[in-house]
Fold this sequence. Notes:
Layout: H1 5-14, E1 16-17, E2 20-24, H2 36-43, H3 56-59, E3 68-74, H4 79-87, H5 94-100, E4 102-107, H6 114-121, H7 127-130, E5 136-139, E6 144-147, E7 152-153, H8 179-185, E8 189-195, H9 202-207, E9 212-216, H10 219-231, E10 238-244, H11 246-254, H12 259-276, H13 282-285, E11 288-293, E12 299-300, H14 313-316, E13 324-326, E14 329-332, H15 339-349, E15 354-358, H16 359-364, H17 377-380, E16 384-388, E17 405-406, H18 412-415, E18 416-423
Parallel strand pairs: 3-10, 3-11, 8-9, 8-10
Antiparallel strand pairs: 1-2, 4-18, 5-6, 6-7, 11-18, 12-17, 13-14, 14-16, 15-16
Helix pairs in contact: 10-12, 11-12
Amino acid sequence: MPDLVNLTLPKLSANHLEGDANLILPSYDGLGLVNLAPSVSRWLGGPVFSEATFSPEIMDKFEKRYKRVVVLVVDALGYNHLKRMIEGEQAPVWKALLSKGNLFPISSVSPSTTATALTTIWTGKDPQRHGIIGYEMWVKELSMVINTILHQPITYLNDVGSLVKSGFDPSAFLGVPPFGEVLEAGRIESHSFLPYTITGSGLSQMHSSKTILHGYVSESDLWANLRDNLNARPANAKYIYAYWSLVDTLMHRYGPDDDRVANQFAMLSWALQTQLFDRLESWAKQDTLFLMTADHGAVPTPQHEEYVLANHPELIEQLVMMPTCENRLSFLYVKPGRETAVREYFDHTWPGKFTLMTRQQAFEINLFGVSPLNPKLESRVGDLIAVSHGNAYLWWANKPNTMLGRHGGLTADEMLIPLFGIDLS
Length: 425
């Protein structure tokens, strides 16, 4: 495999926060996750998006048309982490895979988190357009902070999906058509393979209109179902999406560099080769493009009491409410006239650990996208945004701080994700 990192990484690295090359801004113009859906639609001969496809550096490495495109999203598989595991021979199957395919670094979105990134994958729109901004999001029209994955008020426990009690309709909330609807207009089938526990979730409903959902119980179930789907002779072009969550689950619990994370990815990779690629009918491989990517990466975040906001009552006093969004990209709603006090508190308490920017500054640097601004972001984004450096974070939830790995921020380990593509023909 040619070394393709130099085709995209220099451009990605050059697009960073002013004054800090370690904080990478998302690409929304050809080298980012937002360009995935438009590219898939082009490969399948589907409708043309107003958003760009991947840049020529990527598109030129693949054929112009395919009958089937498979996209495997491995939650929390950052590009840098993947490279470390491959170079450390922790996933041996990748030596053979890389000899046949192409691997590029691309960027996630901001915030680099699952609900935001998957919504981009399933709409082809940047966060500035689709409006899902972070794991915790203030929704003015509901008068509450919501959990954007569990679809419940953020302070509620064990009440998944309870937003419907407030009139929330996940299928109508976005205001932009999900990918399945776009593909159906082009007579292209859309399939989504998800853990069976989330096939009926609000987030899945939000993303999956006109998409056939397939719930799987285990890894073996996923590969068998994917194999059967690909080995069936389709009448039309087909888009197949599969989502794997366990790398993210283990990363949060043990940290991204723990052996459990690498072992899980090694097992996933082995099964991908032996249970899917090696067992496809020869005709099923023809005109089939397989892509693997991620929603975001991750960084280790050791437990430190200095980042727990309960230990900082003076800061809390300056805020209208507790922060929202992400622990590593925190939205601060500041009381009138208190912005200077908040900035001084950060400078004194956490020198060099956070960069603060205003909402307007975030919009000006295209942090959330280049689309016309969704007016709802004016309230969903806080007055100030605290961008984490290194392993810093803010913890405000009313529960123990146990996560040893996090994401959401702009460091390379969070923002850079892989795009691996292999023509199975």
